[in-house]
Write a structure and sequence with these properties.
The chain has helices at about 10-45, 45-75, 90-115, 125-150, 155-185, 190-215, 225-235, 270-285; strands at about 1-5, 240-250, 255-265, 290-300, 305-310. By secondary structure, the protein is of the alpha+beta class. It folds into 2 domains: about 10-215, Alpha-lytic protease prodomain-like (Up-down Bundle); about 225-310, 2-Layer Sandwich (Alpha-Beta Plaits), CATH 3.30.70. Strand 3, helix 8 and strand 4 form a beta-alpha-beta unit.
Length: about 300
């Protein structure tokens, strides 16, 4: 006997709709930030500010990809995709990681040109002011993105938020570095600063890809989540003997959970089903977005391992 449920109520749907609007808003915010940083680079000719502007191009492209992936992932399950379309978010995050890495190599190229032929920074303070304004806007939006990603367990929004925070960090470093270059008059430091930005961007892209590929490979949720699931099963499966072969995996905002529940051989189907309902209700009260499958077995199938029922 198997039983399953999807924890879908009005509140998660509202959060999903809000997440789509936030993803769409990221495109507009990214466009404004890109305009400010591009103006800062155009006015100054700084390789470091160029690196910052180039990363913002990636931000805009990533925001577009994230929004499209979010829309696609929100589609309900169908005949061709019975488990839904949630993994579209992982693909979006992988593409974003690739774009970040490509941006890092483009920055390396620009930094090398500046190193070979250093040129002074012009209209430095105007460029710095524009860059600071763009950085502040990115910081505010990164906070909103991160909060929305946690509420919806969105891989794509989380990747976008991490990328924005890395952009805030690199932009802050760039501003400090450009101030040092202007105050000291050592022009070649501009190229060194751009190289440091490129290294940070490269590391950020690799991290985004690593985490996203884990999702595509059906990585389990974080250990505290799995531990809490086991505790809930142990606390609420009164009448059963044990639960074994517990497996979990993430697909977008959903978490798939399946396990075998061992009950006394003389227990009726009705009583066994009641235990399953009780366990499902307890899990649903704490964890949104669960799809649960429970396979009920007689005590002869016990493995004396896994989750022992309290």
């Amino acid at each position: 006997m198997a039983t399953s449920f999807l924890a879908a109520d009005a509140q998660p749907r509202r959060r999903a709709n809000w997440a789509q609007r936030v993803a769409l808003g990221s495109i507009g915010v990214g466009g404004v930030v890109l305009g400010l940083k591009a103006a800062a680079w155009w006015l100054t000719g700084s390789a470091a500010l160029y690196s910052d502007a180039l990363e913002s191009i990636v931000n805009v492209a990533a925001s577009v990809i994230t929004y499209l992936a979010f829309r696609f992932a929100a589609r309900p399950a169908d005949k061709s995709h019975p488990y839904g379309h949630g993994k579209a978010e992982f693909f979006a995050a992988v593409i974003e990681g690739v774009l970040i890495i490509l941006a890092a190599f483009a920055i390396f190229q620009r930094a090398w040109g500046q190193w070979r032929s250093p040129s002074p920074i012009e209209a430095a303070w105007t460029g710095i002011g524009l860059n600071l304004l763009a950085t502040a806007l990115n910081g505010v939006w990164a906070v909103l993105l991160g909060r929305t990603a946690r509420q919806n367990r969105s891989v794509a929004l989380a990747a976008d938020a991490r990328h924005l925070w890395s952009d805030v960090a690199t932009s802050s470093g760039v501003v400090v570095g450009v101030v040092v270059v202007v105050m000291s008059g050592v022009v070649w430091l501009d190229a060194v600063l751009a190289i440091l930005v490129a290294l940070y961007v490269l590391w950020s892209g690799i991290e985004v890809m690593r985490e996203s590929l884990g999702g595509l490979m059906d990585a389990a949720p974080a250990e505290p989540v799995v531990r809490r699931i086991r505790e809930i099963v142990a606390e609420h499966a009164d009448g059963a003997l044990e639960a074994h072969d517990l497996r979990t995996r993430h697909v977008g905002a959903l978490t798939y959970l399946e396990f075998h529940l061992v009950v006394p051989g003389e227990m009726t189907v009705h009583d066994a089903h009641a235990i399953c309902d009780r366990v499902e209700a307890a899990l649903k009260s704490e964890l949104d977005g669960l799809i649960i499958t429970i396979h009920v077995e007689p005590e002869g199938k016990a493995k004396h391992s896994g989750v022992l029922v309290l």
